[in-house]
Amino acid sequence: MSETLDPWGMAWVHQVYRRELRLLAGLVAGVADGDRERAAIVAEHLADITGSLHEHHVGEDELLWPPLLRRARPHAELVHRMERQHDELHGLLQEAAALGPVWRASAAAADRDRLADVVARISKVTDEHLADEEEHVLPLIREHITPSEWQAFELRGHASIPPEKALVFLGIGLQDATDHERAQFTGGLPPEVLGFWEGEGRVRYESWRAALLGTA
Asked: Which of 7, 53, 81, 179 sits at 20 to 30 Å (Cα–Cα) from 16?
């Protein structure tokens, strides 16, 4: 290929999923029996993260795996392994999607515990899948995916974020970003968006984060 692809965004977004899922497993388990207000806050973020993870995987299934299967045929079994891992995670994500609203409405300890168990399993399986993908698939992406194809994949991910959640995803993305990741991401933001984030946006995000963590 004429251009060298730098899929820096993959490891960046993976780190967000790792961090938030580990956090959510503990947050769900820590909500007191009957505390509907707290359950609503945690359940909403859980739905946002698990929904985003699902969309991330659908983007890979539709936009990355087909060209890799065509161009990296000796590694077809590796790509199929990614597909099987996605299928396993999809089942767990469906469980969480079904249990989350039930727990949010009841805040009952039994519903909380069932959901916490599923979220812990999602976190564990996601950690294993993302490590496998980063070690074995990212080199194939660098070699066989074009910059325009990669851009289409990233744009699909951006489009899947509801506008009302843009500030949350911006904040959690920048929270533990490396200097390189921060520069790459903020360099693509319109000046007015970056200006908003550096002012009112950051304050609003930190207030939301404190409420999520129960430290407000």
From this structure: 81
Rounded average pLDDT over 178-188: 85
Q: Are residues 156 and 168 in the same domain?
A: no
The more confidently predicted of residues 50 and 186 is 50
The residue-averaged pLDDT of 173-195 equals 87
Average pLDDT of the segment spanning 111-117: 98
Residue range 41-73, pLDDT digits in tens: 999 999 999 999 999 999 999 999 999 999 999
Q: Within this chain, do residues 124 and 78 fall inside the same structural domain, yes or no? A: yes
- Which residue is associated with the tokens 């077809």? 76
Q: Which tokens is 198 given?
A: 């550096």
Number of domains in the chain: 2
CA distance 50 to 213: 18
Kindly compute the dihedral angle of the four CA atoms of residues 126, 33, 47, 199, in this order, to the nearest 10 degrees: -100
Query: Which of 144, 160, 176 is the last residue in one of the domains?
Result: 160
Q: What is the separation of C-alpha 166 from the centre of its chain, rounded to a whole number of angstroms?
A: 13
Our CA dihedral for 31, 34, 38, 44, rounded to 10 degrees, sits at 90
Distance of alpha carbon 150 from alpha carbon 169, whole angstroms = 20
Q: Decide: 91 and 125 in contact? Cβ < 8 Å.
A: no
Where b means 16+ CB within 10 Å and e means fewer, 125-137 reads: bbeebbeebeeeb
Which residues touch 26 (CB under 8 Å, ≥6 apart)?
A: none
Euclidean distance between CA atoms 165 and 182, whole angstroms = 19
This prediction's pTM? 0.94
